[in-house]
Amino acid sequence: MRITAMLLCVSLVGVCGCRTPEQEGVDHIAELIESIEFELPVELEQTCVLPPEGTSPFVAKFVIENAPPLRPTAPDFPFDNAPPNAVLFSTASGEGMGTYLGRFAFSEGYYGIPGFRIVGDIEFRAQNGDELHATELSQAGPTIPPPFPNATFTGQFTFAGGTGRFDGARGTASVSAQQLGGEPLPGMPPNIPGSTAVVLCGWIDLEGDESGRDD
């Protein structure tokens, strides 16, 4: 797993090549990602930043399977929450591991919008039943159209509460994802597969909770 730190170090300590607290913090995040005992079938490059003061790092790895999409012409297309320019709707489910969650189940309902972008509503469910809720805004790239069937996606998850220990949770995480090849989904352009590997790296604020994992 290659971790790239995006930090602006302008202090004399940073210029002289000595290790700064910021660099040590980034190394700690990289160690957290490496410590997640969930093997991905591909190596993903992930850009991480230090969490804001008073918050904690959040990292996760998971693999999802995408369901065949619905077009707006489908009789059961969910228009109620759809963006006005939605071109498809699909769901995704999978499992993984992350800080604060331990092993979790992942589920999402998402819309595809022009520009190979995705907007979605997400649920992470820990093994004890607690849920962490989030929204997604991601985009395929860096080339358009993406190089299917192994396109990469980048974007952001925004945490928005949940249940149990995640009640009132807030935070963000950057997304690094790659399609895993395989059979194309019905109703999609050729060579778009149904499975995707994902790494998240960001921060979370859980008031009164200083632990990093859910056993």
The gist of it:
The protein has helices spanning 12-15, 21-35; strands spanning 2-5, 45-48, 56-66, 88-98, 102-113, 117-126, 131-141, 152-162, 170-179, 195-205. It is mainly beta and 215 residues long. Strand 8 (152-162) and strand 9 form a beta hairpin.
Description:
It is a single chain. With 215 residues, the protein is mainly beta. The chain has one domain: Porin (Beta Barrel). 9% of the residues lie in helices and 44% in strands. The protein has an eight-stranded antiparallel barrel with strand order 3-4-5-6-7-8-9-10. It is globular and about 55 Å long. The chain starts with a strand and ends in a 10-residue tail after the last strand.
| Gyration radius, in Å | 18 Å
Largest sheet data = 8 strands, antiparallel, barrel
Overall geometry: globular
Q: Pairing-aware structural class of the strands and helices?
A: mainly beta
CATH C-level: Mainly Beta
* Number of DSSP helical runs: 2
Helix content: under 10%
First-last Cα distance: 24 Å
Low-confidence stretches: 1-16
Q: How would you write the strand order of the largest sheet?
A: 3-4-5-6-7-8-9-10
Mean pLDDT: 82
> What portion of residues belong to β-strands?
35-45%
What is the number of domains?
1
The CATH topology is given as Porin
The SSE string, one letter per element, is: EHHEEEEEEEEE
CATH architecture field: Beta Barrel
The total of beta strands comes to 10
